[in-house]
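2024-03-11 09:14:02 INFO worker-7 job=invfold-0412 stage=load source=structure_tokens
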């Protein structure tokens, strides 16, 4: 029997996307997640797609050919330093590594195959663990990202399937690359919830960034205050995602699922617990069924506590998507802990929820600030809705 509910896109062909052993964006995050799902028994009877590399023509849907040539040259050790800098390569965040073009093209290919699985092969949902490189620009690498798989996949779906896409990004960092790629496009709506750019990379994602020209109103940013906790994060997330979905009425939803808003994450200052990573995919799943006949593609993204946070967060997403949440009611499988405990740099978690998390200062102020930010972010949607309602009343 072939279960057409959900398909996982994953394979070791994605491990070579590795800057170096100590770099936070490490492929072990993928392997640990898959291993956890295996020990749960949550992948054995489920469909799996092995990612293949995107072609150069596919990469050129978004990226400049000169940038692609630079990435190829960089991976072959023949890119001069001055050129590397101009393309955002050979930086501390995004250093050169051997065969980086091939490795990055495999991450893009995975997201493209996930989209085809949903739009051509009859799957309702697809999860590509290795995707979510949302900082990649047309002509420049940035923030651990070389090619922007989501931007390419969105442009690919627009051209091949003529669909309108809602992209929802809950990584702790602003989804800048995807936002700027479609900033003037009314057929692609981007919603990014992230830690405010005041002190955090990439510094953009202000509430006033709403799109331009015909695309005005279709970029929505909700920059959250540092130390935001579960309740405020989820209140804002639920209101924003629900209202934006109702406003835009997408044909398909793409979610970027960076897991770096967790309080243990070393690279952000948000303060959520594992509970948020159970709720994020639950709402995405509901809204995909409410607005898109189920069509939902999910990708990974950031998340830099690779032992304690990322495997559980991404496993919860797959369990939600594939209708197997029952696996996360109990303990994290002992077999997974035994398999990795000698290699792990942290004590591996034994439960699916975080017990007691440290208290934060200024809880009330943080919540009030986030509510105000949400109001500003959704202002144009809420006023348009009111105007439409008045219009309808007048005609009745
Ligand atoms: Zn991030």
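2024-03-11 09:14:09 INFO worker-7 stage=emit residues=396
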């Amino acid at each position: 029997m072939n279960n057409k509910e959900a398909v996982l896109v994953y394979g070791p062909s994605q491990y070579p996307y590795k800057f170096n052993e100590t770099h936070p964006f490490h492929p072990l995050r993928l392997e640990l997640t898959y291993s956890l799902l295996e020990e749960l028994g949550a992948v054995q009877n489920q469909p799996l797609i092995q990612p293949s590399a995107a072609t150069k023509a596919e990469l050129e849907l978004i990226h400049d050919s000169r940038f692609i040539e630079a990435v190829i040259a960089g991976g072959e050790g023949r890119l001069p330093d001055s050129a590397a800098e101009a393309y955002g390569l050979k930086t501390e965040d995004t250093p050169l590594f051997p065969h980086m073009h091939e490795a990055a093209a495999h991450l893009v290919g995975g997201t493209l195959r996930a989209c085809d699985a949903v739009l051509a092969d009859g799957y309702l949902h697809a999860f590509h663990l290795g995707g979510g490189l949302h900082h990649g620009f047309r002509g420049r690498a940035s923030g651990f990202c070389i090619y922007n798989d989501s931007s390419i996949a969105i442009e690919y779906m627009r051209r091949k399937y003529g669909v309108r896409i809602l992209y929802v990004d809950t990584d702790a960092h602003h989804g800048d690359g995807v936002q700027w790629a479609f900033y003037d496009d009314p057929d692609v709506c981007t919603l990014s919830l992230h830690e405010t750019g005041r002190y955090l990379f990439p510094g953009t994602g202000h509430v006033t960034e709403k799109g331009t020209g015909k695309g005005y109103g279709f970029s929505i940013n909700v920059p959250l205050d540092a130390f935001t906790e579960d309740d405020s994060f989820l209140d804002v997330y639920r209101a924003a995602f629900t209202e934006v979905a109702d406003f835009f009425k997408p044909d398909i939803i793409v979610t970027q699922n960076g897991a770096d808003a967790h309080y243990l994450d070393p690279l952000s200052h948000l303060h959520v617990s594992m509970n948020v990573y159970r709720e994020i995919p639950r709402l995405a799943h509901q809204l995909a069924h409410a607005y898109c006949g189920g069509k939902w593609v999910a990708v990974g993204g950031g998340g830099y506590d690779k032992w304690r946070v990322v495997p559980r967060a991404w496993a919860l997403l797959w369990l939600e998507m594939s209708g197997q949440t029952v696996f996360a009611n109990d303990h994290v499988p002992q077999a997974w802990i035994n398999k990795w405990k000698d290699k792990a740099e942290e004590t591996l978690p034994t439960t699916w929820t975080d017990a007691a998390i440290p208290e934060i200062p200024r809880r009330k102020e943080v919540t009030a600030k986030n509510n105000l930010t949400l109001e500003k972010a959704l202002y144009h949607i809420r006023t348009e809705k009111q105007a439409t309602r008045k219009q309808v009343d007048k005609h009745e």
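2024-03-11 09:14:09 INFO worker-7 stage=report msg="The longest strand covers residues 188-195."
2024-03-11 09:14:10 INFO worker-7 job finished
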